[in-house]
Amino acid sequence: MPGFLILNGPNLNLLGTRQPEVYGRTTLADVEGMCRAHGEKIGVGVEFEQSNHEGALIDAIHGTRGRLDGLILNAGAYTHTSLALMDAISSAEIPAIELHLSNVHAREEFRHKSYIARVAVGVICGFGARGYTLAMDAMLSHLETRK
Ligand code: DQA
C-alpha cells in the first residue's frame, strides 16, 4: 500500500478560525479526518503533520526519503519564500504536490511566486479543504502512470 505524507506549514493549525472568508471553516482536524477516510477508501496510508517551523518541516520531508511514496505539501507562506523547503524536496527524492486552499493566483502578487512548484509534480489550489483529497487522487494516479 502506498504511503503519503500530508504536510502543513505555518498558521494552518488555525484553520477554521483563521480568515474563514479566505480559508473556510473546516478545521485542520477535520481535514485530517477527511484525508484518513479517503486514504482508507483509495488504499493509501496517510501520515498527517503540521508545523509552524521551517526546520521541522524540512526534517519531516527528509523523513519520507525511501520510506513513503508521495508528499502533499501545503507550505503556507513558506511556499513563496523557502529555498530550503525546495531543496529538501529535491534531496528526499519524493514526488510532491504543492497544495493551497485558496487560489493563490487570484490573490496578492507576492503569492504568485512559488519555490515549491519548481520541484513539484503539480499544483492544486483554490478548492478549499477538498483540495487535500483531490491531491491524494492526483498523487495516486501520478504514481500509477509512472509505473
Ligand atoms: C495558503 C496560501 C498561502 O499564500 C498562505 O500564506 C497560507 C495558506 C493556502 O492554503 O491557501 O498560509 O497556503
From TrEMBL:
<protein>
    <recommendedName>
        <fullName>3-dehydroquinate dehydratase</fullName>
        <ecNumber>4.2.1.10</ecNumber>
    </recommendedName>
</protein>
<keyword id="KW-0028">Amino-acid biosynthesis</keyword>
<feature type="binding site">
    <location>
        <position position="74"/>
    </location>
    <ligand>
        <name>substrate</name>
    </ligand>
</feature>
<dbReference type="GO" id="GO:0003855">
    <property type="term" value="F:3-dehydroquinate dehydratase activity"/>
</dbReference>
<comment type="pathway">
    <text>Metabolic intermediate biosynthesis; chorismate biosynthesis; chorismate from D-erythrose 4-phosphate and phosphoenolpyruvate: step 3/7.</text>
</comment>
<dbReference type="InterPro" id="IPR036441">
    <property type="entry name" value="DHquinase_II_sf"/>
</dbReference>
<keyword id="KW-0057">Aromatic amino acid biosynthesis</keyword>
<keyword id="KW-0456">Lyase</keyword>
<feature type="binding site">
    <location>
        <position position="80"/>
    </location>
    <ligand>
        <name>substrate</name>
    </ligand>
</feature>
<dbReference type="Pfam" id="PF01220">
    <property type="entry name" value="DHquinase_II"/>
</dbReference>
<comment type="subunit">
    <text>Homododecamer.</text>
</comment>
<dbReference type="InterPro" id="IPR001874">
    <property type="entry name" value="DHquinase_II"/>
</dbReference>
<feature type="active site" description="Proton donor">
    <location>
        <position position="100"/>
    </location>
</feature>
<dbReference type="GO" id="GO:0019631">
    <property type="term" value="P:quinate catabolic process"/>
</dbReference>
<dbReference type="InterPro" id="IPR018509">
    <property type="entry name" value="DHquinase_II_CS"/>
</dbReference>
<dbReference type="GO" id="GO:0008652">
    <property type="term" value="P:amino acid biosynthetic process"/>
</dbReference>
<feature type="active site" description="Proton acceptor">
    <location>
        <position position="23"/>
    </location>
</feature>
<dbReference type="GO" id="GO:0009073">
    <property type="term" value="P:aromatic amino acid family biosynthetic process"/>
</dbReference>
<dbReference type="GO" id="GO:0009423">
    <property type="term" value="P:chorismate biosynthetic process"/>
</dbReference>
<feature type="site" description="Transition state stabilizer">
    <location>
        <position position="18"/>
    </location>
</feature>
<feature type="binding site">
    <location>
        <position position="87"/>
    </location>
    <ligand>
        <name>substrate</name>
    </ligand>
</feature>
<comment type="function">
    <text>Catalyzes a trans-dehydration via an enolate intermediate.</text>
</comment>
<feature type="binding site">
    <location>
        <position position="111"/>
    </location>
    <ligand>
        <name>substrate</name>
    </ligand>
</feature>
<comment type="similarity">
    <text>Belongs to the type-II 3-dehydroquinase family.</text>
</comment>
<feature type="binding site">
    <location>
        <begin position="101"/>
        <end position="102"/>
    </location>
    <ligand>
        <name>substrate</name>
    </ligand>
</feature>
